[in-house]
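User
New here, explain this?
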Amino acid sequence: MLRSRHDNQSAGGRHVLLLRRAMTGEPQPLLNVLFLCTGNSARSILAEAIMNRLGGGRFKAYSAGSTPKGAVHPQALSLLGSQGFALGEFRSKPWDEFAAPDAPRLDFVITVCDNAAGEVCPIWPGQPITAHWGMPDPAAVEGDPAAIALAFADTYRMLTNRIRLFTSLPIESLDRLAIKRRMDDIGHSQDSPQPA
């Protein structure tokens, strides 16, 4: 599980602000979500794209890796292009960018690979709520192009399902512990691959 010194802290000022705005009908600020994977070339990139599309103006997603590959996997780019995403916005980058003082304040940090979940992460600005949504690495699939494309499509589908569940949470009315439990439940959801 992703480790952070701040996971067990009570609701911070930002969460209180969200609750107050929800009760008064004021517009909610964007919530920042960071998706982590070791290489930041496939799963975390797909998650960033999906969250920014499905986030409905409530969420702003980013992605990073502990040891980034330096380039987005070509099949990830092909899949995102086929789904109508602008490809120029995606790049493989280190997670250190998001631990810097001028980095966006993070509300949520979600690991999507088991390797990154087991690593000791930097201290993130904003004391984000963390979760692990492990899934198979489509970039590790070898063989014919159809098998590789299927692996990426399956990962895209699983991430879409989980992100839909996440974006439907009534975050403004839940405390930090309830949000963390729900995020963990999403990560444990039974999301088996589609039959070939």
